[in-house]
């Protein structure tokens, strides 16, 4: 029983629930995280692959890295944690997903109301005018240009870039009025996203963290579960479902 210390009588089907996720929720789908020992940033320099300066210096290197990741993601499937969120969303009608992930697995698992704070690896846009552009799979590895002359790039947020303003504002508004928040598989190091669980907690939400490792948010969490998301989240679902019905 994971929830023996958690007073479930404070939650109802009308409770407002937020699922805040990072790369760790997709780890069990076989998608590499960033800061784990075998993660991307243990092998590559993030400034070369995920920054404007890196793209200007060697666009083909950046596009190749994103194409490799995109192919791995296409072969992967949503795991038990993504699917569990869909089940939770049937239970809690006011629930949203705020993710730092660009892999699109929440949508493929049937999750609803998804805020993709760092963009989506399957989309492309012009680095100059910002227009969204469709590219065939074949073209994704090469450098393409927009009508305006700008280079085409993945529609993701790079280091040093701002998050979509309206989306991050709405994310902060939503977490500041939620009743229950799950923060799942994020190292809670990259701001402004990492501020969201702190914001929820400071406004009175009950915040549950699921991560095999402790994070800077762990001391603030109401409940910190050191387990894999694909194992912990379905157990939470079973317990909460049984209590609410
Ligand atoms: P990180 O790679 O920083 O953190 C992944 C977290 O997932 C770690 O804390 C792991 O302990 C945890 N984890 C690993 N396996 C897990 C599992 N099976 N279940 C649950 N948790 C698990 O990834 P993020 O926090 O998402 O940004 O990183 C935030 C941002 O930094 C990313 O969006 C990306 C990155 O640089 C950009 O590219 C702009």
Description:
This protein has 245 residues and is of the alpha/beta class. Helices cover 34% and strands 18% of the residues. The chain is built from nine helices and nine strands. The strands form two sheets. Strands 3-2-1-7-8-9 form a six-stranded parallel β-sheet, sandwiched between helices. Strands 5-4-6 form a three-stranded antiparallel β-sheet. The mean pLDDT is 95. Bound molecules: 2'-O-acetyl adenosine-5-diphosphoribose. Residues 22-24, 27-28, 33-36, 39, 46, 50, 100, 118, 157, 159, 185-187, 189-190, 210-213, 215, 228-229 line the site of 2'-O-acetyl adenosine-5-diphosphoribose.
Short description:
The protein is α/β, with parallel strands linked by helices and about 240 residues long. The chain is about 35% helix and about 20% strand.
- The shape, in one word, is elongated
Helix and strand content put the structural class at alpha/beta
Radius of gyration of CA atoms, rounded to a whole number: 19 Å
Q: How many E-type strands? A: 9
How many helices does DSSP assign? Answer: 9
The rounded distance between the terminal residues' Cα atoms is: 17 Å
CATH homologous superfamily assignment of the largest domain: TPP-binding domain
* CATH fold descriptor of the largest domain: Rossmann fold
Mean pLDDT equals 95
């Amino acid at each position: 029983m994971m929830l023996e210390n958690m007073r479930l009588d404070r939650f109802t089907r009308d409770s407002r629930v937020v699922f805040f996720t990072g790369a760790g929720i997709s780890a069990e789908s076989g998608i590499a995280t960033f800061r784990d020992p075998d993660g991307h940033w243990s092998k590559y320099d993030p400034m070369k692959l995920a920054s404007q300066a890196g793209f200007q210096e060697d666009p083909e290197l950046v596009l190749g890295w994103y194409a490799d990741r995109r192919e791995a993601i296409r072969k992967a499937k949503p795991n038990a944690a993504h699917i569990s969120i869909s089940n939770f969303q049937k239970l809690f009608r006011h629930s949203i997903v705020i993710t730092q992930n660009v892999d699109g697995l929440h949508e493929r698992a049937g999750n609803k109301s998804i805020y993709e704070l760092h963009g989506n690896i399957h989309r492309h846009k012009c680095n100059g005018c910002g227009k969204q552009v469709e590219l065939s799979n074949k073209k994704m590895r090469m450098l393409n240009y927009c009508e305006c002359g700008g280079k085409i790039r993945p529609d993701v947020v790079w280091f040093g870039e701002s998050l979509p303003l309206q989306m991050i504002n709405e994310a902060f508004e939503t977490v500041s009025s939620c009743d229950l928040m799950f923060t799942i598989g994020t190292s809670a190091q990259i701001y402004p996203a990492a501020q969201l669980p702190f914001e929820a907690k400071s406004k009175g939400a009950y915040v549950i963290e699921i991560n095999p490792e402790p994070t800077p948010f762990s001391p603030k969490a109401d409940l910190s579960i050191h387990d894999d998301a694909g194992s912990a989240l379905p157990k939470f679902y079973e317990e909460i479902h049984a209590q609410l019905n």
